[in-house]
Specification:
By secondary structure, this protein is an alpha/beta fold. 38% of the residues lie in helices and 24% in strands. It is built from 9 helices and 12 strands. The strands form 3 sheets. It has a 4-stranded parallel β-sheet with strand order 2-1-3-4, sandwiched between helices. It has a 4-stranded antiparallel β-sheet with strand order 5-8-6-7, sandwiched between helices. Helix 1 packs across helix 9. The longest helix is centred in the C-terminal third of the chain and has 18 residues.
């Protein structure tokens, strides 16, 4: 597969809320780098993928739509190289994410997964959950309202009802954790890791980047991701680092220039192994 042509499938704008240009920019930059290394790379949209136009044996993809993920899984099962794995992309859906991480012993907020037509107040009250985050569970985020803070169980119930009215059938409600919010980006197998305080991009004070890198890499391995990024909280009381979100192939916006070579190198390495 050493000289195989590569298909690069861009993320649908519906799954790039507030990040359409940034998501496209990182994939464009990786494609440019691969072409400079002599690779044939053809760009596709998610719609073109769904139309059956992608024939290349290697697919690098930022897709998140259900139909696209299913098609990529079929390609993977048939022997094509897909990066990230479509199964890894699926694992980033919130109804699976917390379950996978918790089963591996990786810190994740206490939560419930619920149908949006239920009364969740009694369950949240019994768990002592007031301040919390309500997140759609059936799909990756498409609107800013798909991740919403609630100051009480009653407010969380109102948000869940709004989800139901929008046609979102399942939600995750996660306990809010006070602490230091951290953003991170990584590329497995390359040593590349970048992190910073979410509220201060110029600072990494108080962050043990080596320990965080190790934790995030382990989480990525559990989820079957190679190119990843997300959010964590350093708990103000316990000092424990809790992962609250991991995305497959994020925009790498604050470190795009530094991330391009490791991402492309990973892809070339996987092609060589394949």
């Amino acid at each position: 597969m050493t000289n195989s042509s590569i298909a690069a499938v861009f993320r649908s704008p519906a799954y790039s809320p507030n990040h359409i240009a940034n998501d496209a920019a990182i994939l464009n930059a990786v494609c440019t780098y691969l072409r400079r290394r002599g690779r044939t790379v053809k760009a596709y949209t998610e719609n073109e993928l769904q139309q059956g136009l992608v024939k290349e044996p290697v697919v690098i993809s930022m897709c998140r739509g259900r139909t696209s993920i299913a098609l990529l899984q079929e390609m993977e099962d048939a022997g094509r190289l897909v990066v990230n794995s479509a199964y890894g992309i699926e694992n980033c859906k919130r109804e699976l994410l917390g379950r996978r991480l918790a089963a591996a012993g990786i810190g994740y907020p206490e939560n419930i997964v619920t149908r949006t037509d239920r009364n969740i107040v009694p369950e949240l009250t019994a768990m002592g959950i007031e301040r919390c985050w309500v997140k759609r569970a059936d799909s990756h985020s498409q609107h800013k309202e798909d991740i919403t803070f609630a100051s009480s169980a009653t407010e969380a119930q109102e948000i869940v009802h709004e989800y139901f009215m929008r046609g979102i059938m399942t939600a995750v409600i996660e306990r809010h954790i006070e602490g230091i919010p951290v953003k991170f980006y990584g590329v497995a197998g390359t040593g590349f890791f970048y992190c910073y305080h979410r509220d201060d991009r110029e600072s990494a004070k108080g962050i043990d980047s080596e320990a965080l890198s190790s934790l995030c890499l382990r989480a990525a391995e559990v989820l079957n991701l190679k190119i990843y990024g997300g959010d964590a909280i350093i708990d103000a009381e316990s000092g424990e680092t809790v992962i609250i979100n991991i995305n497959d192939w994020p925009s790498f916006a604050p470190c795009r220039q530094e991330a391009v070579k490791p991402i492309a190198g990973l892809i070339l390495s996987l092609i060589k192994k394949k």
